[in-house]
Amino acid sequence: MFGMATNALPGNDFAACTGCSLCLLVCPVWRATHDIRLTPHGRAKALQHGATAVDLIESIASCTFCGACEPACPEGIDLIGMIVGLRQQLPASSARNLSVAQTPLHSSSRSQSPAHGAPSVVLADQSLRDHPDILACVVSLLGVQNNDDNGADISCALETGTLVSPSRIEAFVEPLQRKGRIVVADGLLLRHLRAWLPRTRIESIGAALSRLPALRRQLRSSDLYVIEPRGYHADYERQVRHYDALRVETGCETNLDLQRIAIPAIARNLSQRLDASVPRDLESARWILHRRRMSRIVVESVDDIRVFEQITDCPVVHVAHLVDPPATTERGAW
Amino acid sequence: MTTTPVTTATPTALAGTAGYCPVAPDSLAGVTRRQTNPSRWAGDGWAAFVAELASRDVEVLTGAAVRGLFATDAGGTAYGLPHGVVIARSASQVSALLQTAQWYRVPITVRGGGLTTEGESVAFGGVLLDMTGMSRVLHVDAQALTVRTEAGIFWHSLAEELRRHGLDYCSAPLNLTSSVGGTVNVGGIDVNSPRLGCSADQVIAMQVVTPTGDIVECSDAKNAELFERVILGYGQFGVVTEATLQVRRYTPLRMRYFYYTSLRSAITDLKLLDANDASDYSGILTMMDRAVNLLVAFDSPEREATFIADWQPRLRGHGEVAFAIRAAAYYAIRPWKVGEALYIYRRKRELFPQFERPEFLRGDDLHDRTVVFSRAVWKFWGSRQMVIPDLATSADRFIEAVERGNAVCRKYFAHYTLYCVGIKLRDDHRAHYEMSCIPPGAMDRAYGCEFEPMTSGRAYSRDYLQSFKNEIYDIGVDIGASYYRFGGMMKGYIRRVFGDAVVDRHLAMKRAADPGMILNRDVIF
Predict the structure, then answer these.
(1) CATH for B137-249, among 1.10.3720.10, 3.90.650.10, 3.40.190.10, 3.30.465.10?
(2) Is the Cβ pair A51, B384 closer than 8 Å?
């Protein structure tokens, strides 16, 4: 029912790649390595010339799923779908360096039913759950309930290329059909939910919060506002206008590049995220700050707080903390 | 070196026309003026070559996936596989590669953005040197308005860095993924080239690795002869590893469009504006020859106001509404051309919103025009198969060149685009221009026109496309023009256009600089 047999979204495939390289310009992996093999262009061209998923395992593993390449692609290739599909093609033995399918990366309380009857829910990922103060602010500001089933196992499976049973996706998605609005922390899940539930209002936490007038009033022209890339790119055509309007209204700077693509504060693939011994590569965050002067950094992703705190003395605040929840009466500006 | 070279004799040791000439008219015997893919290098001594490079810490990637990645260029009509790929990381690594390649006589094909259309950046055997591995910006001097950068960098990536300094490059191709090194080797034309010249003329100094592996810094004042040859040298005389470029302060721009039904009128107006420095940017972009768009743009409101007062009244172009009425009247009495009318209407409806996306507009100002232009270029002109023959002429022959080229386009294709722009020339760089896209007879300003068929959704044979290109290039021979894309599959025209004396002199210089004739051998020599 929800097209979960392959977990892929419809779109052009690698055969449509003309080799224009526009995806390179926005790819954080390319920026870090300058190795074309590790880019969507590199994968598509290799596939056009007979490479298999196994031939491309290093490239496949390197992708951070930030989704920046998709809006940049003039051919409209489903590049995230392509990488999901390639990961699914890897034999289990080859996929060892992606192996988190059995890892409890995120907890997903599936034993409890979702918040039935609530018009709006938030699907908080584990990072947000680890910051209950921020989660409480989000819930309060947006007037949503925290959904027990956050779909983390599905998102994890999508990223690792593990097939999810249709019954599990059905169990996750079916109750969500009755929600008027779904706010999602995980951009990869957001991307798929938009395909599975095309008639439901779905957006990222950052986009939902930054829509609130009370919050917008707190943004200053000297702020650097850091957009969470996955959710932004998953809903690019709408969000590019939303954040452009935000910038015009508040005067704040953002982490968008000249193409209006979001630069991630930290670009890590799944293996790097799981391996605590791998030091964080902070170059991307440094690039965001390069030659910028700001009095405050406002982030949408809770993970970005620590990243920026490591490299700057500038105050870093989560967007949900810009206003005091009890004072907020302008909920749900949809 | 401990191993014996596979070939010790230089294939053609004598200069001039003595011996084998790779660009002689008879080098394509039996295939009159039709260069097909060159024969592939056979691979003699490859294993020893790779081993030698490994001993010098140069990694050669030989997997099928990475070789396949570089099997063609943006043109998509020339296909070839390298034996191996080297991702450039430093000048010393490139030097080691070229020294070893000279010894073993292994051809090296250098690739930046891979945006050639005639197979110039396709390796028919040997090594493909991917320069995008050298993409760092090394130093920005905001006071002197210069930047030092590694040459594999894409112009857009350079722009990203420059913008953080409030700067922008002067002129670059309307394509974000052209590389700096590749561009300075061939020219680089922008819609501000009528004022600022081509990208190659913005280069102040370069670090070049010569075909024999020497790492040389060159400029107009230092090693000027090498500088002269490498600029607009089509990669024949060295690999550009770093470049110092003139840059400028960033400004958004204000654009205006004028619509014509006549190429001749539009070109006349374009030349009028250029000759009088009436705009900061100018160019012509067509949808067929009945919908001709003269684009002008300005870096400041003051420049725009002067244009409106002094020059706009003299233009013969129309606004959008007046043009639409004229076009409707024209096609109303020519119902057999309804297909063409619908094509123009559909194209306009799809294309124009791309130039008006709100995230790039602030009031009347267009920001990041290169992003806007480049996205449109790829979205509306890009396809798996692209041929873009061109003619570059002096100002006085330009209308003739465009009109004759347009007639060829009409003969071959249902839909096509012409892109015309002027190129300001530098008197002090005359020597750079020899045997380049700049036509010998052009003074002060040259003009170029690209003729691009819309091939999306249609499949054309390579012979058909080649015949089309030949007809365009024959016009160039006839009127004494030059071409931007005279390498690769079009190099059969080199002697016809430039003449034996010039070609022989350059061939002799090439043989002296590159004894093994290994560097970019399928581009020119």
Answers:
(1) 3.30.465.10
(2) no
Can you tell me the distance from the alpha carbon of B106 to that of B97, in angstroms, rounded to the nearest whole number? 10
Q: Chain-wide mean pLDDT for chain A?
A: 86
What does the alpha-carbon distance between residue A26 and residue A66 come to, in Å, rounded to a whole number?
10
HEC string of A212-257 equals CHHHHHHCCCCEEEECCHHHHHHCHHHHHHHHHHHHHHHCCEECEC
For strands B84-87 and A120-123, give the pairing.
Answer: unpaired
For domain A212-327, say whether CATH 3.90.550 is its number: no
Lookup: tokens for B493: 């025209």
Contact B159 A258 (CB under 8 A): yes
CB-CB neighbors (< 8 A) of A45 in chain B? 68-71
**Per-residue pLDDT tens digits for B298-323:** 999 999 999 999 999 999 999 999 99
Contact B133 A35 (CB under 8 A): yes
Rounded to a whole number, what is the distance in angstroms from the first to the last CA of chain A?
28
Query: For chain B, what percentages of helix, strand and coil (3-state, to nearest 5) are there?
Result: 40, 20, 40
Domain edges within chain B: 25-131+500-513, 137-249, 254-498
CA distances from A17 to A14, B57, B79, B131, B357 (A): 6, 33, 16, 21, 24
* Strand ranges in A51-126 using DSSP code E only, listed in sequence order: 120-123
Task: Give the pLDDT confidence of A274-324 residue by residue, as tens digits.
Answer: 777 777 789 999 999 999 999 999 999 999 999 999 999 999 999 999 987
Burial class (CB in 10 A: 0-12, 13-18, 19+), B10: middle
Mean pLDDT for the stretch of residues B247-273:
97
* CA-based torsion, B51, B53, B56, B57: positive or negative: negative
In order of A92, B66, B150, B239, B523, the CA distances from B520 in angstroms are: 43, 20, 20, 10, 6
Q: Enumerate helices (H) and strands (E) in chain B, giving the number of each.
A: 17, 17
Cβ atoms of A90 and A53 closer than 8 Å:
yes
* pLDDT over 50 (residue B6): no
pLDDT of residue A11: 60
Residue B135 CA to residue B131 CA, distance in Å, equals 8
Cα gap B500→A268, rounded to integer Å: 57
Which region, left, alpha or beta, applies to residue B171 given φ > 0 means left and ψ of -120 to 50 means alpha? beta
Report the C-alpha gap between B418 and B423 in whole angstroms. 16
Chain B environment of A244 (Cβ under 8 Å): 358-359
Check residue B383 and give its pLDDT. Answer: 81
SS (H, E, C) B506-518: HHHHHHHHCCCCC
Record: contact B165-A20, CB cut-off 8 A = no
CATH code of the domain occupying B254-498 = 3.40.462
Torsion, Cα of B87, B89, B95, B100 (10° steps): -40
Higher pLDDT, B405 or A93: B405
Per cent of chain A over pLDDT 70 is 86
Q: Which of A35, A55, A75 is opposite residue B65, by nearest beta carbon?
A: A55
A291: left (phi over 0), alpha (psi -120 to 50) or beta: left
Cα A138 to its chain centre, rounded Å, is: 17
Buried b (16+ CB within 10 A) or exposed e, A23-54: bbbbbbbbbbebbbbbbbbbbbbbbbbebebe
Residue B242 has pLDDT above 70, yes or no: yes
